[in-house]
Design a protein that fits this description.
Helix content is 72%, strand content 0%. The protein is an all-alpha fold and 593 residues long.
């Protein structure tokens, strides 16, 4: 008689580990040498000796607990013990097909090993299930042709069976026989408007690049299933992918209007579209509607915080990040910081730092551990805070430690070079970053190296670093201004210098430092009237810069305005000029020829 399983209503104790030993008696006894000596060696449990019903129920329990590998062990033992068992064999094959290639090969072996006497007695759904599993095992092992024959025969016998039609259509698609796949799908839809068939039709259209056809099918599905949000999401995604953000927005908004209290995913996608369109205020408005719908979900709060941070509304951002950290802390287990809490904590620290609350930001960053994705970022922010507070020793120790732990992370070298500039250790900038330039392109590192080359008088290397930046980013205003000013300082290539600074000013026309650079180019070109006009504008923008005041004095002197020149030089001294002696000499002697 063929062994089949019916539904059982029973309660049993499931032993999760197959080789688990019975608990020792008298747990209150101490493990003295004599006591330990009397413990007998444990004998591994032979699964094949267990009752078949116990094996089957154990397999079901293992699946319920999310342990498919253990379920496979029980089912293999059962099939070995009872080769005629149909349902367990089918379930075993199905589980193996979901595994790796080795298990897929096993699946084919197990389905082919079904005794012929059993197989020939299969009828109705069991016979159909056998054929489907056999076809799936053939597909998994690359025997597409034989699988096609089996499925085509099955479909001709059972045209109403959607699962066979789906499997055959996917098989045709694997062979890129899209016309055959679409034909059997259309035939199936004509028999029954099944969502699974329509969904596969959409997928095939997308694979072929037939986006209009895909949208047409999705529109039909939307009419057939107006409550199914996933269809609207697919249409909106497709519309945005084709560059029609307006259509995507309209589709989502229409669904939201009719499902205002449940359209969580539509709200989220709409907010994402607004973010990608840089419509930050609109995105904030959508996320604010999501807060009550999601019971103030922490991810929604973090998204709101990021958007307010982007708008430099740091107090509002801080409040949202704080709410998120509080909520995630309450949800946490064993006082261990999970990844979501770590992300929220990092951004909470960032919002405090952006508000210049450095002492409050520091402990937040310090909460992140090495296993968190933003750990390195947090460490770099701690170094940045230390630099801001002029705690250079602390910043140096932290960055050198990171350099040892993360030798291939460009951001570490960028931060370290920034620290060295603050310390005026220009040779260290070059030495410590020589190998880092091979890690990849970095505007920050190249610019910091350029500053160091300029301070060290290595002008050929300076020009090379800036040209690397401008070759990649020809409109980089900082590099253009620095290069132009450096050329003017060296009194060379003045027309190039002027062109560069003027190009930088097209990006930031009211930048006082850029205006100072242009005035200095005019000064070097002996165009003193233009130089004075531009320099006065520069100083009005940045009135406390000592170098700019010195430049103004130099220009006044060349204009014959000696008293105004001396007044500007004196003010530069009062603004803590780096070289006050040279300015005092100018005040006493004027500009030497």
């Amino acid at each position: 008689m063929i062994f089949r399983f019916a539904a059982y209503c029973c309660v049993f104790v499931f032993v999760a580990g197959c080789s688990s030993a019975p608990k020792m008696q008298e747990n209150n006894k101490k493990n003295s040498p004599s006591h330990v000596k009397n413990v007998k060696a444990q004998t591994p449990i032979v699964l094949e000796k267990m009752d078949v019903q116990f094996l089957y129920l154990s397999a079901q329990q293992a699946l319920h607990q999310g342990q498919p590998t253990l379920a496979v062990r029980f089912l293999k033992a059962l099939v070995k013990k009872e080769p005629d068992a149909v349902t367990p064999r089918f379930e075993l094959v199905d589980l193996l097909l979901a595994g790796g290639q080795k298990k897929k090969s096993e699946a084919k072996s197990y389905i082919e090993a079904m005794p012929e006497a059993v197989r020939t007695q299969l009828v109705d759904d069991e016979a159909l299930q056998y054929q489907q599993l056999y076809a799936r095992s053939l597909i998994a092992n690359g025997d597409i042709e034989q699988a096609s024959v089996i499925l085509e025969d099955l479909l001709s016998e059972k045209p109403e069976r959607i699962e066979i039609r789906l499997l055959l259509a996917r098989l045709y698609a694997i062979n890129q026989s899209y016309s055959l796949a679409q034909r059997i799908i259309e035939q199936g839809i004509a028999l029954s408007k099944d969502k699974r068939l329509q969904q596969l039709q959409v997928q095939l259209y997308l694979q072929q690049g037939a986006f209009k056809n895909a949208d047409t099918t999705l529109a039909t599905m939307q009419r057939d299933y107006p409550e199914h949000e996933d269809i609207v999401l697919q249409r909106a995604h497709l519309a945005e992918k084709q560059g029609s953000g307006i259509k995507a927005e309209a589709l989502l908004q229409l669904f939201i209007d009719t499902h205002e209290d449940t359209a969580v995913q539509s709200y989220q996608m709409l907010a994402g579209i607004y973010v990608r369109q840089n419509r930050v205020s609109a995105a904030i408005a959508v996320y604010e509607k999501l807060v009550p719908l999601t019971a103030a979900d922490a991810d929604v709060l973090v998204s709101l915080g990021k958007l307010h941070y982007q708008q430099q509304d740091f107090p509002e951002a801080r409040d949202y990040f704080k709410q998120a950290t509080t909520q995630l802390t309450m949800q946490g287990a064993n006082n261990k910081m999970g990844e979501r809490l770590a992300v929220a904590t990092f951004y909470y620290g960032a919002s405090l730092e952006a508000s210049h609350q450095w002492k409050l930001a520091t402990p937040e960053y310090e909460k992140l551990l090495t296993e968190h994705s933003l750990y390195l970022d947090a460490q770099l922010r701690l170094a940045s805070i230390a630099i801001t507070l002029k705690e250079y020793k602390d910043a140096e120790q932290r960055l050198l430690r990171l350099k040892r732990s993360y030798p291939h992370e460009m951001e570490v070298y960028e931060s370290l070079s920034g620290l060295r500039l603050q310390q005026k250790r220009y040779q260290d900038v070059i030495r410590e970053s020589d190998k880092a330039v091979d890690l990849g392109f970095s505007q920050t590192l190249l610019f910091n190296r350029a500053v160091s080359f300029e301070k060290l008088g290595q002008f050929e290397a300076l020009d090379g670093a800036l040209e690397q930046i401008l070759n990649r980013f020809p409109n980089d205003a900082e590099a253009l201004n620095f290069y132009g000013y450096s050329l003017a300082e060296r009194d060379i290539r003045l027309e190039d210098a002027r062109r560069m600074v003027e190009k930088a000013l097209t990006t930031r026309p009211n930048d006082g430092y850029y205006l100072d650079s242009l005035a200095w180019v005019f000064y070097k070109q002996r165009m003193y009237d233009k130089a004075l006009e531009v320099q006065l504008k520069a100083v009005s923008t940045v009135p406390s810069d000592s170098v700019m005041l010195e430049h103004l004095g130099d220009i006044y002197w060349q204009q014959g305005e000696a008293e105004q020149a001396k007044a500007s030089w004196q003010k530069a001294i009062e603004m803590n000029h780096e070289h006050p002696q040279s300015l005092e000499q100018k005040i006493n002697q004027g500009l030497l020829k």
